[in-house]
């Protein structure tokens, strides 16, 4: 028998009133281009516009505002991979509450730095969120701190659900919501809120392959998670005990996406919407890209839940995307070892419309003739067809060209 649901529509309405004016009412906008790309009628909730660039402010603030004066005086502690950490730290500082945040050691540097900038004491402990959580609970008991869970708490769930109220106020015709699942706090609150407004609306969750606990539960399988993912914000071992009954009852299905789906979604959001999404924030769009048949023709609301991506990772994702799309070539080209040969090659590439991004001579570590030079070149082109044409023109000029793996 499924456990009872711990929040209701009244809790979410109360949370909305409580946090009003203290968090941003973020825009929900239709994307004509992404609608054309996916085949769905896509509307995006830009929660990356929040002050800490994440939806987590909603639940964190709601929880903090519900603390008693005695609890505020004691101070709070939270464990988080980053966004909940920043949200608790930021609003705790605003409210004059001391905050301690425990983060896994692998948390992106940008999230650690921003959490400290908000005045919180940061402890880096454990290789995963579960280990950080154990340390946080021990420290909470030792120092008599109030534990603020990132998802498995009715106050947190209700706060997150306020974003669904806003989405449906802006677009009452939405028939589908696609929401990332980590611990399940956001999808739980949003499902209760959305179903209270439109019982016919369908809620879909999204998880990455390495952390697909809700999908496994839905399928009646044993939960088995772990590994690396670009979507560290939803890299949670299992959904919360109070979140699962809501997911079980109100969420239609949970779709699973792979890492390349998420990377492609990040690239599209930057190129098309001119907005930055972290891996978890792009998961909703990744679901539409990976499973277009599930959402074709639907009026779909996506939650771009966070934009806190490490800049080094973002750079890598963008370059990998260019390579996969055939817009960035890596060529190994053999040219004669004589004066002017490299300039001639560069001229041929430029004449063919290619832009040389990087170039390197290789004389020593090669099995080719000592009278030849291997040039390793990274070249930007318009698209795959343009790249094929450029390679063909180099080969027609008598050059030996080998492509590197995309």
Task: Walk me through this protein's architecture.
- The chain is α/β, with parallel strands linked by helices and 406 residues long.
- It folds into two domains: 1-325, Rossmann fold (3-Layer(aba) Sandwich); 327-403, Alpha-Beta Plaits.
- Helix content is 44%, strand content 19%.
- The chain has 17 helices and 14 strands.
- The chain has helices at 9-19, 32-38, 56-65, 69-74, 83-95, 109-117, 129-143, 154-170, 185-197, 213-218, 244-250, 259-273, 283-290, 292-295, 311-324, 341-351, 384-396, and strands at 28-30, 41-46, 76-79, 99-103, 121-124, 146-147, 176-180, 202-208, 251-257, 299-304, 328-336, 355-362, 372-380, 400-403.
- Strands 1-2-10-7-8-9 form a six-stranded mixed sheet, with helices on both faces. It has a four-stranded parallel sheet with strand order 5-4-3-6, with helices on both faces.
- Helix 6 (109-117) links the parallel strand 4 (99-103) and strand 5.
- Helix 1 (9-19) packs across helix 8.
- The radius of gyration is 25 Å and the shape is elongated.
């Amino acid at each position: 028998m499924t456990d009872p649901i711990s929040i209701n529509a009244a809790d979410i309405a109360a949370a909305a009133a409580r946090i009003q004016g203290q968090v941003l009412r973020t825009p929900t906008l239709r994307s004509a281009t992404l609608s054309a790309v996916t085949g769905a009628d896509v509307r995006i909730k830009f929660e990356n516009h929040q002050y800490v660039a994440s939806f987590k402010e909603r639940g964190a603030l709601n929880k903090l505002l519900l603390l008693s004066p005695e609890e505020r005086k004691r101070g709070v502690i939270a464990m988080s991979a980053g966004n909940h950490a920043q949200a608790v730290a930021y609003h705790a500082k605003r409210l004059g509450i001391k905050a301690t945040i425990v983060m896994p050691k692998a948390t992106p540097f940008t999230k650690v730095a921003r959490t400290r900038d908000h005045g919180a004491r940061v402890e880096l402990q454990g290789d995963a969120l579960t280990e950080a959580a154990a340390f946080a609970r021990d420290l909470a008991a030792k120092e008599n701190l109030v534990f603020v869970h990132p998802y498995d708490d009715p106050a947190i769930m209700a706060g997150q659900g306020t974003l669904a109220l806003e989405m449906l106020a802006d677009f009452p015709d939405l028939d589908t919501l696609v929401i990332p699942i980590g611990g399940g706090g956001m999808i739980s609150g949003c499902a209760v809120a959305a179903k209270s407004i439109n019982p016919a609306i369908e809620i879909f969750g999204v998880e990455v392959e390495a952390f697909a606990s809700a999908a496994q539960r839905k399928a009646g399988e044993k939960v088995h998670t772990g590994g690396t993912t670009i979507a560290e914000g939803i890299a949670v071992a299992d959904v919360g005990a109070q979140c699962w009954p809501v997911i079980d009852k109100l969420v239609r299905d949970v779709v699973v996406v792979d890492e390349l789906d998420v990377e492609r979604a990040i690239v599209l959001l930057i190129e098309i919407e001119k907005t930055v999404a972290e891996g978890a924030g792009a998961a909703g769009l990744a679901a539409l890209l990976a499973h277009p048949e599930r959402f074709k023709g639907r009026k779909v609301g996506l939650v771009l839940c966070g934009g806190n991506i490490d800049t080094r990772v973002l750079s890598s994702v963008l370059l990998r995307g260019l390579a996969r799309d055939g817009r960035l070539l890596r060529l190994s080209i053999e040219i004669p070892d004589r004066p002017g040969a490299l300039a001639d090659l560069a001229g041929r590439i430029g004449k063919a419309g290619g832009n040389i991004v990087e170039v390197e001579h290789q004389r020593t570590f090669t099995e080719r003739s000592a009278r030849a030079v291997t040039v390793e070149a990274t070249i930007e082109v318009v698209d795959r067809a343009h790249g094929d044409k450029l390679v063909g023109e180099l080969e027609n000029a008598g050059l030996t060209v080998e492509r590197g793996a995309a």
